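Why does this matter for the project? Reviewers at the last site visit asked to see concrete outputs rather than summary tables. In response, this paragraph embeds two records directly. Each consists of the residue sequence and, immediately after it, the corresponding structure tokens. Nothing has been edited or filtered.
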Amino acid sequence: MVSTIRLAILVLAGAAALAGQNVANEVCAGCHDQAPKVAASTHAKVACSQCHLKHEEYPHPAKVVKPKCASCHAQAGDDYALSVHGVQAAKGNAAAPECATCHQSAHEVLNPKSSDFRMTVPDTCGMCHDQVSAQYKVSVHGTAVAKGETNSAVCTDCHGEHKILAKGNEASSVHGSHLRDTCGQCHGNVTLARRFGMPSDRMVTFDQSFHGLALKSGSQTVANCASCHGIHNILPSKDQRSMVSVKNLPATCGRCHPGAGTRFVLGPVHQAEGRNEPPGMAMVRGFYMFAIPFTIGLMLVHNGGDLVRKLIRYYHGAPIRHAAAERGEVRMYGFERLSHAMLAISFIILAFTGLALKYPDQWWARPFLLWESDLQLRRYIHRIAAVVMMVVTVMHAVALVASRRLREHWYEMLPKMRDLTDGLFTFAFNVGLRKTKPELPSHSYMEKLEYWAVVWGSIVMIVTGMLLWFNNWSLQFLPKFVLDIATAVHWYEAVLASLAIVVWHFYSVIFDPEVYPMDFAWFTGHSSRKRPTHHKEAKAAKPTDAEEPVATVE
């Protein structure tokens, strides 16, 4: 009787096959007891005949090729072939996991998008990676999963599902260059951050830090999330076992910065602008947020008013001086022109490479970042330019000490009370609040402001730059917030200096109609600008070949 039923089933199956139709699973269930398992699996709607070859032949022939999952799941198959598991399987490693190892047999496979399947992922991976699994289960992620939290990260969230690549592979999601984005899937998600009570600004603060900027620039050695927080053993910062606990931070940071935190508590690492930052940092930021627009704004109004008045005067018939054709007073001598050239070149390079670090995604920054992963070209160029600027500073200081005549001449750059009134009255004249413009000395408040701004700015940039350059020393002997303040001051001072050069200095030597198209004192030594000549200056302006040249600044 049983044989008769089986024969009938095979006849029906053969007829269906000849008709080009899939055999209903109920037909196969007449002989095979897999039907209940298939019905509960994600393959419930898949016909047995779609996977099993030669099902219509009875008895089923032996050694029929086992169905391949990739015949339906082509993308998953391609990804698996590229993964560490697929590579090992291709080499003949019998222990390499295959589809059924993780998904169970084709008759029992669960929906991989279901919460039930997701919660089993750590145990599934733990069958082979037992030590990693043990670390994971005590981590913040593992303990959350154990409590039934389906949104907590599991193995596949970080490593991928089928295309699991070695961490040394640059295409891997856990490669150092991609870890920020991998962790950011959850820690950059505002909804998840609110749900779990996590800070929502971790990606922002990391991106703004030195580590984040260097990583974005292409550095392969800079610290990433895992460098500080761990990999599978990630614990809350309040846990004494955590790599980022106050107790363990010196050891964690000390792997890259020897001695860091041994004398002072390092303090918070992730700091958002305007929130949870030390009072000193808030004061620095507040000062520059006011000082930069206020200072540059005054410069724009001062120079804009001067330009408008001169253009109106020329429009009404005043003769236009061809400054470039005139040979005025001696303003800069060879030593000063050399110093000025070195300062100008180093300043431009410092500003450009500094901006390339701050905004590495911009097209104009890319040339400096082409070899960042290997040569760190931008860093070397920036530091070489910094050394040149420091050399110029030393040259100027030594010249003032060594040359009495030069020193006496530079006394004219000392501020005087009349500079204040000259500045106020000139500003009032430029904006139309005063009818007459005061007669300014050869070295007026304009030259003095610029000179002392360069002196002050150079000191600030050198001090803060050295703290950042020798950051291992800084972290060893100073609290971390000092380095944070130095970073902020270095950046804001650079912005202020760059804007001041464009708005104040460029107007004085280029765009001012009295010297346009340029005051070539920086090149020829002679200024085309007409200035009042005092007895002392007249004497200094006619040195003999044997005399030591006396220099002034523009």
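We now turn to the second protein, recorded in exactly the same manner.
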Amino acid sequence: MSNISDEFMTQAHIAKLIGVGSATIAKWSRNNVNGFPAPLRIGPNPLVATKRWRKSDIDKWISKLKGIRNVPFLGAQ
């Protein structure tokens, strides 16, 4: 659950944060890879709306993956 002060992240920002390409984020989002959070669609038409992710959702997703071995963008564990 998010709160009113939650920050929003772009696809490019998430990609840079975890060290993957922006296209990878799009693919993970489309295919729900490892529970990747769905974006919020901002705008009047959901088909062409701007996509943003809650930073809190991305932080939770990364925390969840830290328990999984061999996740390249999280570094060696």
